Amino acid sequence: MPPEGPVEARRITPPDDPSLIDIADLALALGTDLDRGLGAEEAAGRLRANGPNELRAVPPVPAWRRALAQLQDPLVYLLGAAAAVALAAWWFEGRGRQGAAGWPLDAIVIICVVVLNAVLGWLQEAKAAQAVAALAKMTTATSAVLRDGVVTRVPSAELVKGDVLVLAEGDAVGADARLAQAAALKLLEAPLTGESEPVLKDAALLHEPAALGDRLNMVFKGTAVAQGTGRAFVTATGMQTEMGGIATLLDTMPDASTPLQVEIAHLGKVLGIAALGVAAVVVATILLISDIHGVADVVTAMTLGASIPACGRDA
Q1: Residue 134: what pLDDT?
Q2: The total number of structural domains that make up the chain
Q3: pLDDT score at 11
Q4: Is pLDDT at 2 greater than 50 in this prediction?
Q5: Are 244 and 168 in a shared domain?
Q6: Domain that holds residue 187
Q7: CB 149: neighbour CB atoms within 10 A?
Q8: Which residues, 6+ apart, have CB-to-CB distance to 174 below 8 Å?
Q9: How far is 175 from 16, CA to CA, in rounded Å?
Q10: Which among 77, 200, 202, 258 counts the fewest CB atoms within 10 Å?
């Protein structure tokens, strides 16, 4: 039977390597029983004390930051420069004519294109995020456990150390656990070890430390039962699982762009430089072959040059 006492005093710390501990000693250390499992109150207390059985989630990106990311593109910068030139041209043209020059249509059109492109990109990302969230909610995993001697299914996020997992074919393993019983039990461990074939498990005690893929008396979070049945004591949950260790390593690795993202960024820079080069040549050619009679003519040439990056972006 689980020991009595305040919840804070029942924080369970299983051995560093449960595969090397006799199952009776492990049950005693975890304060549980193979035939009855944990009591409902005991499980609730451990859940409050140790937290849910979940991997640490990445903080969501604020909406304003996702919107700003839509504008972080070299061609968008070119469009901004083109809009600025068009706006300056409209202003100088209006002053040269000693009156209003109407609306700066070129600048307005360019800005509208940039804003519309950013809004569409933001909406697409938002819809994708909503779809992923809905799919995750639909596929919330559950686990069969013994609670007060009765097999019941609970959300895998509510598993705690000391729970007795009841494994059957097709089940997803919700936490790292030490096998107490196994009958022709085979697990698919490809997500964790890369092993493509089902691994036959055995509840027998290991006598020396083994590599992760060779701990045959252990089952791990993120794997699935391919065949057979078994019962196991949960020894680690959340970020303390082997899958949690991988998540921690991923958190510490710097973000790197994919080859496709690198190529797209490179292409954007090349197109931007090419557009600027063509615009400079066009403006220079117009200024050389045309009769320039004042600021208005120079502004017209610059406006034509500024339209080239905008056309490149639209293309």
Answers
A1: 67
A2: 2
A3: 41
A4: no
A5: yes
A6: 7-53+159-249
A7: 11
A8: 53, 141, 142, 143, 156, 159, 165, 221
A9: 15
A10: 258
